[in-house]
Amino acid sequence: MYMPRTPVKGRGTVWAIEHRFHSDAREAFDDGWGALEQAAKEEVLAPGTQLVEENVKSILAGNESPDIHFDLSINPYRGCEHGCIYCFARPTHSYLNLSPGLDFETRIIAKVNAAERLREAFNRRGYVPQLLNIGSATDAYQPVERRLRITRSVIEVLSEARHPFSLVTKSAGVERDLDLIAPMAAERLAAVYVSITTLDARLARVMEPRAAAPHRRLQTIKALTQAGVPVGVSVSPVIPFINEPEVERILEAAAEAGATSAFSIVLRLPWEVNPLFQQWLEQHFPDRAARVMARIREMRGGRDNDPDFGSRMRGQGVWAELLRQRVRKAMARLGLDRHRIELDLTQFRPPAKPGEAGQASLF
């Protein structure tokens, strides 16, 4: 298959890598006319984003992973225009017969009836509230949310039902919904985690090209904190020799902005993320690509990826332990280990049933 060599501004990758279920194998070849060299030199235009609206049968996904600290998740979108090259959710596009590479950030599936399905789920007999997270796989505030407002409609149902939730995002778009989130936070029903991987704007532009700039995410932490919303920071993923040297500085900046808790996860390279990341690494950091991968393999028991529960989030070996110590010490020094965000599951009440919600506003 042809592997584009030229990065494109605004995209994490332009490689439409075939997914792992693809039955045909293709390989580029030289036809004697210099086609491969010419293709490598040609400017590749940034492909536009295509939106597919989908009516889903359900919106709540249960969590069976023992190393993830929530029970249910809601992802209003499949695929993510932020284009983070390291995103562990990229392989999910394979199930749609789409590329985890270019398609993941240009073919966005919007679950337009998410709020309706959530209302139905909450009204089922025997539903018991559990810890719920929004945006655990793909960002609920990616650019298309400005227009579709699916995430906002979901939070409106959560607010009506007094159902607690946490939310993780790289976007300043969450500030739009402070009118809903802040009152819930005051009742211990909402918390937000902002993901900050680097303070270097140049690195952010190539690593997560359409996410908010690092300084803008710090402003978002400040805005949320000032509104009374408990905020944690996710310094994830940590990539050796890329953003790893910044870990302490990121935690310091987040604490100064008002974050009260933090966590960190080392880089994971499941399935198609592995070749995509390694190509990106060779494109942008050829001087240290081999060194980065050697350290990743050291943390992963000699493999590029470790899928095992527990170790997959933390890594193993001397370097992984040193990183954990650095994070723990920085958190202790900054007070980011003193405030555990506890949400209240006791306030839940079933919302109005589908069809009744709109009628209530008429009386």
From TrEMBL:
Positions of the Radical SAM core domain: 64-303
Keywords annotated in UniProt: Iron, Iron-sulfur, Metal-binding
Xref: PROSITE patterns: RADICAL_SAM
GO molecular function annotation: catalytic activity; iron-sulfur cluster binding; metal ion binding
Gene3D superfamilies listed in its UniProt record: 3.80.30.30
Source organism, top-level taxon: Bacteria
SUPFAM superfamilies noted in UniProt: Radical SAM enzymes
Keyword Iron: yes
The keyword Heme is assigned to this record: no
Membrane-spanning parts: none
UniProt xrefs under NCBIfam families: rSAM_PA0069 (NF033668)
Annotated PANTHER family: SLR0285 PROTEIN
Protein name stated in the entry: PA0069 family radical SAM protein
Organism: Aquincola agrisoli
